[in-house]
């Protein structure tokens, strides 16, 4: 099998490197903290083996030894419980025992050095039982008070996690506790912020649970029955100010990278709210989250910036707020800032190890040499040891060995073991340059990793020239970096490595492609919370590369599946629906290919309502209060004002406004108070997004009683019956009573000199009216309403108002009502005023009611006219209609009697505007207009007028008019001769004899000129009347308004079979052409040509047969429609019919019927006395029987007419064919009637006779015409039988 030479070379290099001398290097080792194991305690448990890893690489292969608790550990002495994995130092403990606890460390040694592993403490995991875990304790507590249940969890390692649960007494079922009032502290105590009756134990107990997650085991103990004692007070009175229950210690320590949680648990009724701050400021959302319904702060991964002073404030509106502060200090185990690296060097070179670390407290760095402290290593005068650095000059082979850096503080340690390997090797390129692609204007690196001792010198060559300086940079590891690559950098590159033992070369190539560029970058966005934000992004790249566009938020990829509010559209735009404050931040659009990526960022600011203000205090005076507050953040939209709200003991569940627009610069404000009230205040902040949640409420301000400061507002009086008056006012809220025993005193009197006041007291403050009965109709009264309490009458005078007793129906209708017609919609109405006394109420004016005969009175329109008018010009009449009108007076409650109804006809008016108008481009210079008929024509439509003018910006050009449309049923038109790519205002007006109606206009643009053929057109046609014997055809062009139809058209036509088409003149203004002068009875081939500029497209050819009364589209000829076939079938039918007739005649010539006697019996005596000439024409020249062109014109059947002389089956023939039977009177009457009808019709039919041999002789009677669908020259067999 053929193997590539490059692969063989690579394998050789790998093998040679693998065989090079090397001190040991740890590749697997124990962790730095601890390893847990579990010992089987019960027979039902199984032993759980564990391992302590240790594995190193080196040449020759290293040997391993272990140290336990600082002493050599001989694991072979532990029977078969402990074994070491073959070829590795890893220990496997299959049967753990308590004696396995200890500090372990592994060492790997070969002839070149000793590598040291991490030191790890192996610890036993265990969980003990609760003390007295079977005891059940009963505890009593009062409803509404804070309370706690103590848990004494068992010992264990790791420290068990403590929870409380509710355990059913029967069945042992358990359920978790999840309530904002109940919290578990880290020590296992269950805290009730306040106890409710629902917390009482009913068929269940509270139990404490300790869980070991490593052992997958939990224990239950400290069972408690809880009795909740009722206090006897209402829920609104059972209130307790905040009381501290559990808090984290004042000075708390957290460890870098670990989790931390700060607790602030307070009890009280209502449930206290906890407000957290850090260093005196609100804690921003993000890394810190609130747990336990805000009672704890949780930090998932502690960082140095989390250090600081944390405070919590608990308040519930009862008493003063309580606060607590915690100082959080962040400690850190050591971590490397500079790590030592392995050094491969040649003799006479230098080696340097650097090591630096940080931590809190500051770590101490110590060096290890071949498993021992550096101070115990053999002396080496060429080795310089510093606190964080070791330098070895003029290396010799014996300097090969392991060095370790150990950084330690009180929290932990970090350790790394490396080595120096002194070698003598020719250069080998271990990682050769590849054939790579890169985009322009980006930096790129060609790889060339070299191994050799001494360290080889690396050069890069292209086209025989060494690449140095400028945009080319050779890294210490041999790689070549080209900065700002351009298309001229494409080509082949050579890496050349050389030292004193030899050299090596490798080759690679570079392909340069167009870089990715963002063409439409996202822009900064500012939205209100709850609305939608959209970022747009698009990019271009090299055509040979596949590009993807993705989005980042705060430098993290957006997971569109996990966040359905984030939507990625097909155009790569990012839409964020229902945005909230956490969506704020930087959004980055990343356009990437396999070779590069480009990004553009924009900031989203989601503005929300402000945070609730913090109420700082209140100062209460006799009749005013000063409220002070502090802003707690505007959520990215500046605060514009504050609102101060209050509630009182009168309305404890509602809040009213004390001051609505307090300037944003204020942090305190004074508001007035009313006497005899208990006030509580709160503050709301406003920004442009909306209002914040309210602040916590203030303490109570109380005021002393006083007389009322006002009287009721909105006092009025009016009757709801003709003989009464209802006095109404707005009730005064309790806040305005100012003292107990509040009442209203209502006073009224006639509005005449000397009239006495009457009064009535109302003690129910919610009443807002009284009714005064037995008053004369519509008379004025003086009214006032006073406010009174136990301190006296209001300190302001009550306002007197004028009211009226009730109204009655007006008595008089306006007289002398007449109409003077002005135009199609207007008329001047005249009438005689009614008297004021007849109105019997407040004279509001007149109502004019009008309707048309089509609308009916139920759809009347009403116009109001003031009471001082006796004439009015009304323009609400309907044009071109019979209008009706009447008038009546009215007062505040009733309409008066109407006048007589007048009717009149209005002349035609101008039409309303057309309800819709559309324009569709036809090519680049025409528009197809479509509209609808006006809803009200106001007359007889005579057509439409179309005006148009070009539009440039806000200016319109000169008005031009299209040829008027005189067909009122035409609702489309073509507007031609327009300029391409121009905006036009198009106005259409319907017309009647009264003139042009109201215009409706649209603005639209013609298409720009394009070098494009129109779409294939379609057309239809119809016959046009002609007065010269020739045919005319109207051809209608059907433009495709959805495509590109062209601007005008022509018609091409020719007789079928002729080679040359004739073509009509171009039709520019209409969508039809009348092709005149066509030969009737001919077949023409026609097609429509759509034209736009120099381009045209023909339609499919259609064949049309021309006739004097219109065209007939030629059908494709088939056997069923071919003329020869139809003629042949008709001839066969005629021959069969003649044959049948001859057969019937031959049959009936065997005997003669007594026809003459029969006819005489039926009243037909118009025959000569010599008898009936059976085979001759009647003497009077009139036809007989059914020789009419319609064989059934008399209502006869197609059977032999002789059957009519009998009655059904009773009639018959003798053997010689003579008739046997008798007439019934009914049959005789029917026969006479039919014969009479026959005689009347005979004059209008043709005269015929038959020869003795049955041949037919006859001619048409002038003026006769056969009926459609009947053969006029062929009598029916029944008719022949009548006369044979």
UniProtKB/TrEMBL annotation:
It is a single-pass type I membrane protein. It is found in: Cell membrane. Residues 24-128, 143-227, 242-329, 334-421, 427-519, 522-605 form the Ig-like domain. Residues 1-18 form the signal peptide. The chain crosses the membrane at residues 1122-1145. One of its GO terms (cellular component) is plasma membrane. Residues 609-706, 711-808, 813-909, 913-1015, 1016-1109 form the Fibronectin type-III domain. It holds the Pfam family I-set. Residues 1275-1284 have a biased composition (Polar residues). One of its GO terms (biological process) is axon guidance. One of its GO terms (molecular function) is cell-cell adhesion mediator activity. Residues 697-720, 1166-1211, 1229-1284 are annotated as: Disordered. Residues 1235-1252 have a biased composition (Basic and acidic residues). The keyword Mitochondrion does not apply. Keywords: Cell adhesion, Cell membrane, Disulfide bond, Glycoprotein, Immunoglobulin domain, Membrane, Repeat, Signal, Transmembrane, Transmembrane helix. This is Neuroglian. It comes from Cloeon dipterum.
């Amino acid at each position: 099998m053929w193997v590539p030479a490059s692969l063989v070379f690579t394998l050789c290099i790998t093998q040679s490197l693998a065989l090079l001398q090397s001190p040991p290097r740890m590749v697997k080792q124990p962790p730095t903290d601890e390893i847990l194991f579990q010992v089987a305690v019960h027979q039902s448990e199984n032993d759980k083996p564990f391992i302590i890893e240790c594995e190193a690489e080196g040449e020759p292969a290293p040997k391993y030894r272990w140290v336990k608790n600082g002493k050599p550990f001989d694991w072979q002495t532990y029977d078969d419980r402990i074994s070491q994995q073959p070829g590795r130092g890893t220990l496997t403990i299959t049967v753990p025992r308590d004696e396995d606890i200890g500090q372990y460390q592994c060492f790997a040694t070969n002839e070149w050095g000793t590598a040291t592993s991490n030191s790890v403490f192996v610890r036993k995991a265990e969980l003990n039982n609760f003390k007295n875990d079977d005891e059940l304790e009963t505890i009593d507590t009062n409803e509404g008070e804070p309370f706690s249940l103590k848990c004494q969890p068992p010992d264990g390692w790791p420290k068990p996690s403590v929870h409380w649960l509710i355990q059913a007494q029967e069945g042992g079922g358990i359920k978790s506790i999840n309530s904002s009032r109940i919290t578990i502290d880290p020590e296992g105590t269950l805290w009730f912020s306040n106890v409710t009756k629902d917390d009482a134990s009913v068929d269940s107990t509270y139990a404490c649970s300790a869980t070991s997650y490593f052992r997958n085991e939990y224990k239950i103990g400290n069972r408690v029955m809880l009795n909740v004692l009722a206090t006897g007070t209402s829920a609104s009175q059972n209130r307790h100010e905040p009381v501290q229950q559990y808090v984290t210690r004042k000075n708390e320590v957290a460890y870098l990278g670990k989790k931390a949680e700060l607790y602030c648990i307070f009890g009280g009724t209502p449930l206290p709210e906890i407000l957290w701050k850090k260093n005196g400021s609100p804690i921003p959302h993000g890394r810190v989250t609130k747990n336990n319904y805000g009672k704890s702060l949780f930090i998932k991964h502690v960082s140095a910036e989390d250090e600081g002073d944390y405070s919590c404030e608990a308040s519930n509106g009862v008493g003063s707020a309580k606060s607590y502060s915690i100082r959080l200090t962040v400690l850190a185990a050591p971590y490397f800032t500079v790590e030592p690296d392995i050094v491969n060097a040649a003799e006479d070179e230098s080696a340097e190890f650097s090591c630096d670390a940080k931590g809190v407290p500051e770590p101490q760095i110590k060096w290890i040499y071949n498993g021992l402290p550096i101070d115990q290593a053999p002396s080496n005068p060429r080795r310089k040891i510093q606190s964080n650095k070791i330098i070895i000059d003029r290396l010799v082979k014996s300097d090969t060995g392991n060095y370790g850096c150990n950084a330690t503080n009180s929290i932990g340690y970090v350790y790394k073991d490396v080595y120096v390997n002194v070698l003598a090797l020719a250069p080998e390129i271990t990682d050769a340059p590849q054939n790579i692609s890169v985009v322009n204007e980006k930096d790129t690196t060609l790889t060339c990793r070299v191994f050799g001792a001494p360290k080889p010198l690396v050069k890069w060559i292209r086209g025989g020239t060494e690449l140095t300086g400028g945009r080319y940079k050779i890294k210490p590891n041999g790689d070549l970096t080209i900065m700002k690559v351009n298309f001229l950098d494409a080509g082949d590159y050579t890496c050349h490595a050389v030292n004193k033992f030899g050299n090596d070369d490798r080759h690679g190539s570079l392909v340069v492609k167009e870089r990715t560029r963002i063409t439409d970058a996202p822009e900064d966005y500012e939205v209100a919370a709850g609305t939608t934000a959209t970022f747009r992004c698009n990019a271009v790249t090299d055509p040979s590369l596949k590009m993807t566009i993705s989005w980042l938020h705060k430098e993290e990829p957006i997971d569109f599946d996990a966040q359905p509010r984030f939507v990625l559209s097909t155009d790569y735009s990012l839409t964020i629906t229902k945005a909230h404050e956490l969506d704020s931040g930087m959004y980055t659009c990343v356009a990437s290919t396999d070779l590069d990526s480009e990004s553009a960022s924009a900031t989203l600011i989601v503005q929300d309502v402000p945070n609730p203000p913090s109420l700082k205090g209140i100062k209460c005076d006799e009749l005013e209060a000063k409220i002070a507050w502090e802003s707690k953040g505007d959520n990215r939209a500046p605060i514009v004002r504050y609102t101060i709200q209050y509630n009182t003991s009168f309305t404890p569940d509602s809040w009213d406004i004390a001051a609505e627009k307090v300037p944003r610069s204020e942090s305190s404000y004074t508001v007035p108070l009313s006497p005899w009230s208990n006030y509580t205040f709160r503050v709301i902040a406003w920004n442009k997004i909306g209002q914040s949640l309210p602040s916590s409420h203030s303490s109570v301000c109380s005021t002393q009683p006083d007389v009322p400061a006002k009287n009721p507002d909105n006092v009025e009086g009016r009757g709801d019956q003709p003989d009464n008056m209802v006095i109404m006012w707005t009730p005064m809220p309790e806040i305005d009573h100012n003292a107990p025993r509040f009442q209203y005193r209502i006073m009224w009197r006639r509005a005449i000199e000397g009239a006495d006041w009457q009064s009535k007291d109302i003690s129910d403050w919610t009443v807002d009216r009284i009714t005064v009965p037995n008053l004369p109709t519509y008379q004025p009264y003086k009214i006032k309403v006073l406010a009174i309490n136990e301190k006296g009458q209001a300190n302001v005078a009550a306002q007197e108002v004028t009211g009226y007793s009730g109204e009655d129906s007006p008595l008089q209708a306006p007289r002398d009502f007449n109409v003077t017609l002005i135009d199609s919609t207007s008329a001047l109405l005249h009438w005689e005023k009614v008297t004021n006394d007849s109105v019997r109420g407040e004279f509001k004016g007149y109502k004019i009611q009008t309707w048309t005969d089509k609308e009916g009175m139920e759809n009347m329109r009403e116009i109001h006219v003031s009471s001082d008018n006796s004439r009015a010009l009304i323009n609400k009449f309907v044009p071109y209609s019979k209008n009706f009108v009447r008038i009546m007076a009215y007062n505040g409650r009733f309409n008066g009697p109407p006048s007589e109804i007048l009717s009149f006809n209005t002349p035609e008016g101008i039409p309303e505007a057309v309800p819709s108008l559309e324009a569709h481009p036809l090519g680049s210079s025409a528009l197809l207009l479509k509209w609808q008929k006006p809803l009200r024509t106001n007359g007889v439509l005579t057509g439409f007028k179309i005006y148009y003018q070009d539009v440039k910006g806000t200016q319109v050009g000169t008005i031009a008019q299209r040829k008027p449309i005189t067909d009122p049923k035409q609702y489309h038109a073509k507007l031609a001769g327009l300029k391409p790519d121009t905006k036009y205002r198009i106005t259409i007006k319907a017309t009647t004899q009264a003139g042009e109606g109201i215009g409706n206009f649209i603005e639209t643009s013609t298409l720009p000129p394009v070098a494009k053929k129109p779409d294939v057109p379609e057309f239809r046609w119809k016959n046009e009347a002609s007065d010269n014997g020739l045919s005319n055809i109207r051809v209608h062009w059907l433009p495709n308004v959805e495509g590109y139809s062209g601007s005008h058209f022509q018609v091409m036509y020719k007789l079928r079979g002729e080679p040359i088409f004739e073509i009509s003149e171009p039709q520019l203004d209409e969508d039809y052409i009348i092709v005149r002068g066509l030969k009737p009875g001919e077949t023409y081939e026609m097609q429509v040509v759509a034209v736009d500029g120099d381009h045209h497209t023909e339609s499919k050819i259609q064949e049309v047969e021309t006739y004097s009364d219109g065209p007939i589209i030629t059908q494709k000829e088939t056997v069923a429609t071919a003329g020869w076939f139809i003629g042949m079938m008709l001839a066969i039918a005629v021959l069969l019919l003649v044959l049948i007739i001859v057969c019937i005649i031959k049959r009936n010539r065997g005997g003669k019927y007594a026809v003459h006697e029969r006819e005489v019996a039926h009243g037909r005596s118009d025959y000569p006395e010599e008898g009936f000439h059976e085979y001759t024409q009647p003497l009077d020249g009139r036809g007989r029987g059914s020789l009419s062109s319609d064989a059934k014109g008399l209502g006869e059947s197609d059977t032999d007419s002789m059957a009519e002389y009998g009655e059904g089956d009773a009639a018959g023939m003798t053997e010689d064919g003579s008739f046997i039977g008798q007439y019934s009177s009914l049959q005789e009457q029917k026969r006479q009637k039919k014969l009479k009808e026959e005689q009347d019709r005979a004059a209008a039919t043709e005269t015929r006779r038959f020869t003795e041999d049955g041949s037919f002789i006859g001619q048409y009677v002038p003026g006769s015409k056969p009926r459609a669908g009947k053969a006029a020259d062929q009598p029916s067999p029944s008719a022949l039988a009548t006369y044979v």
